[in-house]
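Form 7-S
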Amino acid sequence: MAFRLVGIGGLGLMLSPSAKHLAKGETARFIRIHDRGTMDQRRDRCRQAWKEHGAELVGDYQDLIGDGDFDGVVVCAGKNGDDLEIFRSIVPLIKKRCSESPFILHLSTVSSGFAEAAQAFLAEEGLEYANYPLTGGPAGAEAGTMLILASGDPGLYERLEPALSLMGKPKFFGERVTAGAEVKLIGQLMVFNGLNGICSAAALKSACFQEPLTGADQADFFDFLNGGAGGTRQWDVALSKAVRDDVWDQGFMLQHAVVDAIYAARLCQEKGLSALTSMPMISTGLAFSHLLNKYPGTPLATHAVVREMLKENAAGIDSLLQEGMDYANPGASLKKCIASLPEKIRKTVCLDVDQEDFKN
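Output:
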């Protein structure tokens, strides 16, 4: 019998393709999807896909939980601060309306501390919890090839694996509830260091050869050079969009990436690693913060940082880096990075979360 699910974040880029992927099997189906009402063509396509899937679109959590007759809640929404509010809202409703306790499957990228605190809180409430972050981007979600980074209760994973295998490529990393989040942030170290490398190379190429950043010749150059020892997937999935087609608003969007960089830096610090691991993440976070403040309201992906590396723009970003970076005190540097963010994004970071924070 298929799992009956309700979903929060179902109109987002990562969960919405589940509407078509789960139709390939009989392992799980969504009966209701939370719809905040944001109107645009992409979300309208998601709405139509969910209707074809058989899910009802509802405008509030009261209607989402309904009579409580479902097996699990899937949350794929935001960062610590966003999802903390979601949990505070839905848990009392679940306790009140569900005769049998559903599981909560949390697919968002959050800090490892959030996952640990959420599990402790929900265990007290008698609810199963697992955090399975997703990686592979919207393209991977659409193709059903995204990686699903699972950990926690092995019994829950065994029950969910058939459905997860339709959505992407799940892998179980052990019984620690934080392991999935840790693996996601390990991957982000690879992403952000690769991004910094390829953007630095593009900026230097432009300066040395006195050529513009974009254009067919530049694209051909990096298609060639990226095949060497310094190759990185960040050329293909990120910077090539700009160099080849002058596209800056598609890919890993800055408002999400900056928080992931902060979580990755914090994890490195918590594990006692050298500043050489955390400080590049903090400098990346400061660079993204600079862009978010310089271009408020403008949708930009992470590769837009390359333009700030050029001589004509370097003073602005360097000023923030000089103010925020202190290798003698990585912890203070991380706090300065968070403080530099626009207020709306800063509130989503919510770096220090404990069990009590989940209670109303």
